[in-house]
Amino acid sequence: MKNILVIIFTFIFTFVSCIGINYVMREVVEINNNSIISDRVNLVIDAGHGGIDVGTVGTDNTYEKDINLSIALILYDFAMVSGISSFLVRDGDYLVYNEEEEKGRSDLYNRMDFINSIENATLISIHQNHFDDEKEWGMQVWYSPNDDKSKIIADNILNVTKSNIQKDNTRLNKRSDDSYFLLYKAEVPSVMVECGFMSNSEENKKLQDDNYQRSLAYSIMLGFSQYLVEEL
């Protein structure tokens, strides 16, 4: 099973790296009924920030919210072609609320409500990092303290990413505290993937590259799929 899964993901990644997954896969229908992957989980993909909340700002004034959304959309497409039932918390540049609703309600509470509304959910939230020391770089994954599966998912994602595209990355994953609302309050397996540092000019440029974004999304997806095969 594991070898078959690796072959499938390798084929998908090679294919979409050549022609662009966001162009050809937007109209793909759900195929999870015929999936080789367990149908006992629904992947919820959260692109952090959005709208007036731009997140951190890169060395060239690029907004985190835009990079988060790009990677989240690619990750969603990978999940769909892999037969994993998936949901996007946001698929555009906006905060999470309906125009008819009271805007005083926190965007984070609305995201949490959405996650909790999905049966058998697992959350992967996409973010970017920032630090005063511009030399800092590399992916790091925060995981919820409320479910042991969260750490397993986080470790799989980081290990695959290190193997694929960040071989010199020495960062370690961390258990979330109450400063990470979604993870700290989560009732389902949940991780926040900090894909890289926008305060590092070299990495900030890579994070905006379409091919690198696909590589990141592929690594996240493969790490998550390994968790599905091994743990479910």
Task: Characterize the structure shown.
The chain has 232 residues and is of the alpha/beta class. Helices cover 44% and strands 14% of the residues. The protein contains eight helices and six strands, in the order ααβαβαββαβαβαα. The protein has helices at residues 2-19, 21-24, 64-81, 107-117, 148-164, 181-185, 201-207, 210-231; strands at 42-47, 86-88, 121-129, 140-143, 174-175, 190-197. The chain has a six-stranded mixed β-sheet, sandwiched between helices. Helix 3 (64-81) crosses helix 8 and helix 5 (148-164) packs across helix 8 (210-231). The longest helix has 22 residues, at 210-231. The radius of gyration is 17 Å and the shape is globular. The two termini are 13 Å apart. The relative contact order is 0.19.
Secondary structural class: alpha/beta
Low-confidence stretches: 17-36
- Rounded Rg: 17 Å
The order of strands across the largest sheet is 2-1-3-6-4-5
Order of helices and strands: HHEHEHEEHEHEHH
Largest sheet: 6 strands, mixed
User: What's the count of strands?
Assistant: 6
Straight-line N-to-C gap:
13 Å
Rounded mean pLDDT is 86
| Number of distinct helices | 8
Tell me the strand percentage band. 5-15%
